[in-house]
Structure formats: structure tokens, C-alpha cells
Write a structure and sequence with these properties.
Chain lengths: 274, 340
């Protein structure tokens, strides 16, 4: 075993060294900018960052939108994934392909399409006026709502794909057995499907949450400077103020929050066995 | 597998090695915009003339300045084009050298405003642009910068973000219109903050404004003249405002890297770029408005440019020193009043 281990280390070493040198080291160097103050290691830049009410607001807004997108993606994702898993024959493959298709289109193109769809003369507003829900076109663009819609559409496929995998591994007779024992749809979902697919949910949830936290194009195009999120704030700090310290703090926050999301999701997944 | 490896190796060998062909190489750092046109009109003809190789690096001003600062000890680039204020900042950081204008044969042909924009001999203007308000003439009429915040435009106006080149000039003119034009731009920033809900967005790219106007999201926005062509192509009645406070704008300048290894070649390139022939070619393709006063273009071309002695003289530019001294304060006030 040890011999094999040593062999494995030797085989891994070149790739590991390569990624250490060209990825880990530069990223750490970049992040360390945010933890230096007057030549010493310090948390001062972090506390200075959170002393600004704007930065606080942006931090909470980013967290809120990422959480809402993850929750909505989970809700819609379960419905879509269950429907796809239930399809018999070749239709299933075609549906999965339909889910994957948007991932092949550039996020820039997808996001710009939303400007047309959500605009005052776009299809959403025209439909709302047509059915009489509103007299005046609603201002949807450049708001938190627009960012939410854009991110949800961007990341939903990742949730659906993770859940399809989990639902396919779900023992079919478990649902049938619950039904025989008199459980209704809600009970089946909460007591059978949810616990048995938590791992898929954890993977999808992490991808969607981390994706929402770190996406740049969608908040920049659909939100703009009026609705800053951490990534758009980071860009502003670097490109306008050349402020690498705040940029280092924000980048560290994004990384830490992505890892934290993964931990929380894995905790949820583990709870099944507890 | 073996075959694949062989093919990969062969491809790798076919890839040209950098820096081996020509013996002289000039490295320049420019804005990423219109590079196809620049290549055809400026870079290729210059390479043919000097028998040298031109290496072009692109990016926004801040990125490129940060790179120059990082490579201060052994400069990679020989010359750069940046905004007027960034030209002054680079000079203050010791990143640039004085330009020996005696070696620029075309220097005398420049408009006075372009000859030494920062008054330190460290930069030469090569293009400028006017900034005014583009608006839907069937919906509103704009006579003053203050009209941007008038009730008739509420919910139908976009304003340039503070971080863009059009942002501070717009605030500068709004301050004049409000009769409170202090260098800290406090009054105009506060006024925009108070009307935040009436402003559709704070844009970062002029192309966004073309789309928003096309979709009838907005009726008015301050833009640079270089973007005017996109608006004229729309099937909508749009006009370029002539506000009573005047038009503002900006200038881009050329700088010479401090301690650059190819300063002779860099000066030769600057002179080439400033020549009547090249400035005319760039103007005719609507890439850059000429800083060379000998450039003559047809009226329909001039219409899309910032062109002519009178136009140039009337531009109200923010002095670079004022911009540099206040940039950080503008941003923090903006974030405080507008960003949240």
C-alpha cells in the first residue's frame, strides 16, 4: 500500500506543483493584499471594509439574492427534475438536452436577452398590460428582481442536472410504498424524496449559491451601479479606484462564502444519515 | 495515443516563437476599442514604414497603468495612450518621460489644447471628444444640463456612472447648471442622489445607451460624441443637445514610458499617428476625432466627430489636477448618495 502511495505522490507531484505555482500561489498573493496594513498582517482592511454602510448593504444584498436564487432553483429544480425522471423512453434524453442547451450559450448573450425581455416594451410588460395586471409598463430592469431572474435562469440547469442524478437513484418502490401506506404528495416529498435526494440537493445548491455569489455579468448588466453586488463592487474598486486592498477583501469574502455554502449544504446532506 | 502526441508536438513546433523575426520591436499599450481599424490604418502602415514589429497591448487605463507601475524597474511597453488625467497620474508616479516635441514633426499642426494638456510636457493629445446629451426630440427638449433631472424626464433618463469617462464631465456640467460648480462635485452628486429613483440606470458603456434608447427605455442620456453614429442609425427622432452651459468632454493623450528601451521608435510612432494623413484616415473611419488641425473631412463625416477649431475651443474640460485630487472623494460621495 505504502509503495503505491509513494508512486501516487510521484505521479501527482508535477500537476500539483504546476497548479501550486500558477494558481494557488498567485491567488494567495492577490488575496493577501486584503490582509496587510502598514506592512503587517492585519484584519484592519476587513474591519475598514465593513465600517462602510455601503459595503455592508452590498454584502447583505449579495447574500440575500444568492439565498433566494438557491431556494427558488431548489423549488423549480425538484419539479422539473421529477418531471424529467418520470418521462419514459427517449423523451428523457431530449429533455435533459433542453436543460443543458442554455449552458452552451454565453452568459453574456443570455443576460442581454433579458434586457429585451424585461424592458418596458418587452414581452413581459406587454403581457402584463394585455391581461390588465398593470396600466403602465413596470420598471423591472436594473433592479434586484432583474438580477434574481437573470441568475435563476443562468444557474437553474445546474440544480436540475444535480437533482436528476439524485432522483434517478431514488428507489422507486419507496414512493409507491409510502403511497400505499396513505401518504399524500406533500408527505411523500418531505418524508421520502427530500431525505433521499439531499446529496444531489447539496451539490446543486452549492453550485447555484456559489454561482450567484460570484457571477459578474448578470448583476453588472441587469443591475448596474444602482444595485451593486459584491462582484460589481469589486470591479468598481479595482477599475476606478485602483484599490487592490478592498478588492482583496471582497475576493476573500467571496471565496470564504462559497466554501461556507458548501459546508452548510454538506451538513444538510449528512443530516439524512443522522 | 502516440499519434495524437505526435500531432500535438508537431503543432507546438509550428507555433512561431515570440520575438525572433524582426530586430526592432515597439510595444504600445492602448484602449481595446476599434483595434481592427487601428491595425489597418495605423499599425500596419507604421510597421511597413519602420521595418519594425509592433506589439499591441490593450485594456482600460487603470489596468494598463497598474501594469506600468508593476514593471517600473524594467519597462515592457514603450508608449501608451491614456486619458488626460491618467497621463498626469502616470507622470506623478514617475512612469513617464518628457516628450521631446522637437522630434515630432507634426506637433505644430496640433490644436493648442492638445499640445501639452497637463502643462508638464509629459503628454501630447491625439484625440478628444465632446460630451453632451442625446435625446428623443419628439418627447422632450433639452436646453440645459439641469434638464436631466427635470420632472418630464423622470423615469426616462440614464446617466453615466461616476467610473466612466463621461461620468465626471456630466457632473461637472450639472454643477454649472445648478450654479454650484465646486471641484468636489458635491452639489451635482447630491442632486443625482435625490433623484435616484427617476434615473433608469447609471450606464458604463455607450452601447448600452443605444440599446436602451432603441427599446424606448430612456429618452435622454449624456454621451460622448464618438457614440453618436449609433444613435443616428436608429429609426427614432434623436437630437444632440446644445445646452446653454456648453458641452464638456475629454481628451486622450500619448505618453512615453520612463526608461523605455525604444524611445526613438516610440517618438517616431507618435509622430506618425499625429500626422495629417493618419489622423485623417482615423477621422474618416470615425475612429478618433482629429487633434491635428490640418485634417479636413467632409461635412457628413464631421457631423459624427468632435471637429473644428470652434468646437474644440468651446469644450469645457475638467483639469487633470482637479480630477486626480478629487477622484476618490467623488467616488465615495457617489457611493454614499447614489450607490445605496
Amino acid at each position: 500500500m505504502f509503495e503505491k502511495r509513494a508512486e501516487a505522490f510521484v505521479l501527482i507531484a508535477p500537476a500539483a506543483l504546476f497548479s501550486l505555482a500558477v494558481f494557488v500561489a498567485p491567488v494567495l498573493a492577490l488575496l493577501s493584499e486584503g490582509f496587510h496594513f502598514e506592512g503587517h498582517w492585519s484584519l484592519q482592511p476587513l474591519s475598514a471594509f465593513f465600517a462602510s454602510s455601503l459595503n455592508q448593504a452590498v454584502f447583505w444584498r449579495t447574500l440575500k439574492i444568492a439565498a433566494l436564487v438557491t431556494a427558488a432553483a431548489a423549488g423549480l429544480g425538484y419539479l422539473a427534475a421529477q418531471a424529467i425522471v418520470d418521462i419514459k423512453g427517449g423523451g428523457k434524453g431530449r429533455m435533459v438536452a433542453m436543460v443543458v442547451l442554455p449552458l452552451m450559450v454565453s452568459p453574456v448573450a443570455r443576460t442581454y436577452a433579458w434586457i429585451v425581455i424585461l424592458g418596458r416594451t418587452g414581452i413581459v410588460n406587454r403581457a402584463l398590460i394585455f391581461v390588465g395586471l398593470t396600466d403602465e409598463p413596470l420598471r423591472i430592469l436594473f433592479s434586484e428582481t432583474a438580477i434574481f431572474i437573470g441568475l435563476l435562469q443562468l444557474l437553474l440547469p445546474l440544480m436540475i442536472l444535480s437533482l436528476i442524478g439524485a432522483l434517478e437513484n431514488l428507489p422507486r418502490d419507496a414512493v409507491a410504498a409510502a403511497r400505499v401506506l396513505g401518504a399524500n404528495d406533500l408527505q411523500i416529498f418531505v418524508k421520502i424524496i427530500l431525505p433521499l435526494t439531499r446529496e444531489g440537493f447539496a451539490v446543486g445548491g452549492t453550485l447555484v449559491f456559489a454561482g450567484s455569489m460570484t457571477a459578474y455579468i448578470t448583476p453588472a448588466v441587469l443591475g448596474g451601479a444602482k444595485v451593486l453586488m459584491l462582484e460589481t463592487l469589486l470591479y468598481q474598486r479595482v477599475s476606478i479606484a485602483n484599490d487592490l486592498v478592498s478588492a482583496g477583501v471582497i475576493a476573500s469574502l467571496l471565496i470564504v462564502m462559497s466554501f461556507a455554502a458548501n459546508l452548510v449544504m454538506r451538513r444538510i446532506a449528512k443530516a439524512r444519515t443522522a | 495515443m502516440k499519434k495524437r502526441l505526435t500531432i500535438a508536438l508537431a503543432l507546438a513546433l509550428l507555433t512561431p516563437m515570440p520575438g525572433r523575426a524582426e530586430n526592432r520591436t515597439l510595444t504600445i499599450s492602448v484602449y481595446g476599442f476599434a483595434q481592427d481599424a487601428y491595425k489597418k490604418l495605423v499599425y500596419d502602415p507604421f510597421e511597413a514604414q519602420c521595418g519594425c514589429k509592433l506589439v499591441v497591448e490593450t485594456g482600460n487605463s487603470v489596468e494598463r497603468l497598474a501594469k506600468m507601475e508593476a514593471n517600473k524597474g524594467s519597462p515592457v511597453i514603450d508608449m501608451a495612450v491614456v486619458s488626460m488625467a491618467d497621463g498626469l497620474q502616470a507622470a506623478r508616479q514617475g512612469l513617464t518621460d518628457k516628450i521631446d516635441v522637437a522630434r515630432l514633426g507634426n506637433f505644430a499642426k496640433l490644436y493648442d489644447i492638445a499640445k501639452d494638456p497637463n502643462g508638464d510636457g509629459m503628454s501630447v493629445g491625439y484625440t478628444f471628444y465632446a460630451t453632451s446629451i442625446v435625446y428623443r426630440s419628439d418627447k422632450v427638449r433639452i436646453d440645459s444640463w439641469a434638464d436631466l433631472l427635470s420632472p418630464k424626464l423622470a423615469g426616462h433618463v440614464a446617466i453615466a456612472d461616476i467610473g466612466t469617462n463621461q461620468g465626471p464631465p456630466t457632473l461637472f456640467m450639472l454643477g454649472k447648471a445648478l450654479d454650484k460648480d465646486t471641484p468636489d462635485l458635491a452639489a451635482p452628486i447630491d442632486a443625482i442622489g435625490a433623484h435616484k429613483a427617476d434615473i433608469v440606470t447609471f450606464y458604463v458603456r455607450a452601447s448600452q445607451i443605444v440599446q436602451l434608447m432603441q427599446q424606448e427605455e430612456i429618452w435622454a442620456a449624456p454621451i460622448g460624441r464618438f457614440a453618436w453614429e449609433g444613435f443616428k442609425k436608429m429609426n427614432l427622432p434623436v437630437a444632440w443637445a446644445n445646452p446653454k452651459e456648453g458641452q464638456t468632454g475629454g481628451m486622450n493623450v500619448m505618453v512615453l514610458t520612463h526608461g523605455g528601451k525604444n524611445q526613438d521608435l516610440a517618438l517616431q510612432f507618435m509622430d506618425f499617428w499625429l500626422s495629417t494623413e493618419i489622423q485623417t484616415a482615423l477621422a474618416e473611419k470615425l475612429v478618433d476625432s482629429p487633434a491635428n488641425r490640418e485634417v479636413k473631412v467632409a461635412p457628413e463625416v464631421a457631423e459624427n466627430l468632435t471637429y473644428g477649431e470652434d468646437t474644440v475651443k468651446a469644450l469645457e474640460l475638467i483639469p487633470s489636477a482637479v480630477a486626480l485630487a478629487n477622484r476618490e472623494a467623488w467616488l465615495s460621495r457617489w457611493n454614499e448618495k447614489v450607490g445605496q
